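Page 42, continued from yesterday. The earlier attempt failed because a stray header line got pasted into the input along with the sequence. Redoing it now with the clean sequence only.
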Amino acid sequence: MKILVIGHLCLDVIHHADGTETQSPGGIFFSVATLANILPKSDAILPVFGIGKNDYDSIIKLLERYPNIDTSGLFKINGPTNQVLLQYQDVSERIECSKHISEPVPFKKIKPHLDADMILLNMISGYDIALETLDEMRMEVRDAHTPIYMDVHSLTLGIREDCTRFHRPVETWRRWLFMLHAAQMNEEEAAILTGEQYDEDGLAKQVLALNTKALIITRGSRGCTAYVDSHKHTQRHDCTGIPLGKTVDPTGCGDVFAAAYSAHYMRTKDIPGSLAFANRIAARKAEIPGSDQIDLLASMALAGSQEGIQQ
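This time it went through. Structure tokens are written below.
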């Protein structure tokens, strides 16, 4: 099976609340590396994103360590790779500063790879693709009924002149969330997205009315919820938080969650099961600083083999 992954690469500098610092690839790398670790070698993971010329060779070398990653969709960009500084006040509060945000990935780079079984679109920077590109993608895969999973992520973030990010509503949110398999967002993103101050139940009704199958709300250490359309009725599925010995770094947990859900759903078409699997994998990531040790997620492959991930 083949999964297409779209979103911006980042080079993260993470200042942890305890005063330590981690530097490692971030952004869409979290999603791609997670898929590489939890999917079998027989599956194909095809990321599509640009890489700054100075970083291109090192990123390609890093990804080619994984036999199930196809790097043919990666391309060089003229400017530098997006650099993100994350300054944590505590485990849940941070200031984000993004420099050198890349140009949106053009449809011409995506179109050759739309024969995938699943599409994961992760709005890492909020400018990863244009809305018109998503419209073209939906039209291209509509007859094949290819599920598109979208992590709203930084779509709700504006950017100030000093490159710091701030939450603000998205006027075109209905067009963004139209005709998807699922839209993922955390509680803060859900609260700000529409500007109309819907509570979660109200937001779910609005999103599911857009011919989108599921709205997924992540809650950090408290788990997650999926609101699912079932014959014009809304079903709610909750997963409680996973107890951790110690939370090291929450950076990338949402990206890992999106990848784990997509991997599970691609094989099983089971929304509650995919939600529970993603909840566990994302919790495991919280114990890992940055992405340098992300291959530890491979330890979850055994659990995956019991749930339809591995063959």
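Notes: The radius of gyration is 18 Å.
Reminder to self: strip header lines before submitting.
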